[in-house]
Amino acid sequence: MWLLSGCGEDKSKQFGFGSSDCNEVHRNCMNQCTKEGKPMNQCLNDCEKARSMCAAIKVKGCMQNCNQRYGKDSSSAEICKRRCQENDGVAF
Asked: How far is CA 42 from CA 32, 48, 57, in A?
């Protein structure tokens, strides 16, 4: 489970990224936001930010795994990290 919080200003109502599927994070955010009665534009903006943050965290985690697996700055790690960037956080 992701430790960072998604959309919402009230800290007690924020939810963590409970999925590595960033589209699911977006859907969950939209559901929560609309339940709170916020304007659609705000929900779309906040939830797109949540999806973007999810994707960035996923890629960063993938790249860190490459460094751990192959050794930082090795050619194998660099190839692995390129795959992370090209495949939305999945190195295969």
From this structure: 12, 10, 23
